[in-house]
Specification:
Radius of gyration: 13 Å
Order of helices and strands: HHHHHHH
Oligomer: single chain
Structural class: mainly alpha
Number of strands: 0
Largest sheet: none
Strand content: under 5%
Shape: globular
Distance between the termini: 36 Å
Helix content: over 70%
């Protein structure tokens, strides 16, 4: 998405909000793109808020969505949140990818929790 490439997470959040106000249903793609923009903008707290919102709104999360959310936590040195999301993937029966493991490992490294 254009917003994620330009690190304009504010615009991505505004667009997601505009969709809701227009009675358009958000899906995993729109949530993933917005979380990706938050990751690029080092906005891990907003990324986690989007995880909660997506779960409440019922689109099925996928690997790409979780990778971006875990990556946002890694950038914010929030290894505990990253590992919670990693565990939640198992509960949600979402498949891991190499990127998932890399992002989780990076979160532990950033948080200096490698033991």
């Amino acid at each position: 998405s254009a917003c994620s490439k330009g690190s304009t997470w504010e615009h991505a959040l505004l667009l997601l909000s505009a969709m809701a106000q227009s009675n358009m249903k958000s899906n995993v793609i729109t949530y993933s793109a917005t979380v990706d923009a938050c990751e690029k903008g080092s906005q891990w707290e907003r990324a986690l808020q989007l995880v909660s919102a997506m779960i409440q709104n019922k689109p099925e999360p996928n690997t790409i969505f979780f990778n971006s959310a875990i990556g946002a936590c890694a950038k914010g040195e929030e290894w505990e949140h990253a590992l919670q999301l990693f565990s939640f993937m198992t509960e949600s029966k979402v498949e891991y990818s190499t990127i998932t493991f890399s992002a989780a490992i990076s979160a532990c490294k950033q948080g200096r929790e490698w033991e």
